[in-house]
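Before relying on records like the one below, remember that each one covers exactly one chain. Contacts with other chains, cofactors or solvent are not represented anywhere in the record.
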Amino acid sequence: MVKTKKLRPEDEKDEFLTEEESRDSGEFRALLDEYFQQKTFEEGEIITGKVLRISGDSVMVDVGLKSEGIVPLMEMSDPESIKPGDVLDLYLETMENEEGQMVLSKSKADFIRVWDKAKEYLDNESQIEGKVVKRIKGGLIVDLMGVDAFLPGSQIGLRPLETMDSLLGQFVPLKIVKINKKRRNIVVSRRAVLDAERDKLRTAILAEIDKGQLREGIVKNITDFGVFIDLGGLDGLLHITDMSWGRINHPSELVKLGERLKVKILEYDREKSRVSLGLKQLTPHPWEDIETKFPVGATIKGKIVSIVDYGAFIELERGVEGLIHISEMSWTKQVKHPSKLVSIGAEVDAVVLKIDKNEQKISLGLRQLEPDPWNTIEQRYPIGCKVSGKVRNITNFGVFVELDEGIDGLIHISDISWTKRIKHPSEVVKKGDSIDIMVTNIDKDNRRISLGIKQLEDDPWADIGSKFSIGQDLKCKVNRPLERGLLVDMDHGFEGFVPVSELEGVTEDKLAEAFKGGEELDLKIIEIDSSNRRIALSQKILKAEQESGEIKPYLKAEQPSTGTAFGDALNQAIKGKKDEKKDEEKAKEKAEAVAPAEVISDKTEEEKPEATA
């Protein structure tokens, strides 16, 4: 065996070769170095590489240099189709990275390759076809001549799509609208292509469209006030009021985006290119044979579609509504609001009361479905009958009593008592009380029943003379002060009135301070007015009578037949007594003027003159 010579350090890897093998190897190496020296690359250049293998997320390629090149797998348009032996055009980014590998880019190479073509399409505004490959945030990625281009969501179509996924895998016509060589970015638009096609259609439709035509279009947009319809290059407005003869709350109840509709041209303004459309006009007007479909007196069925303060609207059919006025909802109940009896969406029966075809109004009634209880009210509650009822409400002027379900009668405050002056009905009854009453009057036309409590007893004023007489002295109790006198409680449940002018030492402005109620007073009856149910009493007259016996002759004189005559005679007697007192006081004043002051001051209290009554 031939021994090998010791090699240079750079040849240490060949230490196991023979001299001949080493010599041959050196010659091969020299040839290889010479080849590599001839094959030089510069960064930023497009080179060709052969796929060696796929390692993780990288593709290893052979570009004919010492080291292998590396390409990110994600840059491949179809990573699964890449296999060893494939030849790729690549962009040289870095000759050697930290690991001694060449960094290459497939996407940059593709972009540079199509740059000139893309710029030409942009400058000429030419149309190009691309394949939608995937969806990303904000739009779609399109394969355009082998490179990725961005199709923004706003440029996909003339109107929003329900889902962008519907375009995946499809070839679509596009226009390049923006390119950036530095960022290797291409932006395309499908809408620009559709706009151009739409302009052609618009020109054609403008030449032939006219009022009254029937057209087919696609729902382009839905708003609160209506729907925009694409008639094929020209948009028309279908207002919400022209969508249906019936009531709708929002256009979306009848149509949806992308739906194809047949509509009628209602108005067309050629100068402004404005088109008004109608949908309901394709069907007959529902009010044409209204009297035949809904005759007066007929019972119909409908759905409550709206409730207002004054009633409820019922939809009888599409485009035909009737109103149940609040006054036609119940015979007996006082309905405060229609919502207390009906609710939106409810199916109800009603009776047709009136039809106004010109105004397109139908009056309906609910209460007409049942007999009117007021037709037999006089038989059930004849005047003068005694009944029981429940106090339903109390007001300042009286008490409402429920006689039957929904039928109330009124006890006026004046019909509560024969003898008492009632300030407020709540002094006698409380809400919810069950009480006995008498029917005093029935107003069938106005649906009113008058009731009374006092009518349950005989009128005590009929024989007032057997209980009281003019000039009679009584001990009474103050009930309460009134505006110009006192209301006092008398025997037998009667009340009397003492004018402030008949009270001792009290003026009208001090009346409320002097009497709070409950005080006992000695009084004299000075007037009995049966017709007006009034008894007047006096404190002054009684005191005057007690202080002077001279009043008695007047009482023994002719007895007056009326309270007024007695009062006049009594006033004359008191006046005479006062005049005599005044004469006595004048005489006394003259005597005091003559007599010495010491004589007057020596008089005892008993000897001093009394105050005039």
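DSSP finds ten helices and 30 strands in the chain.
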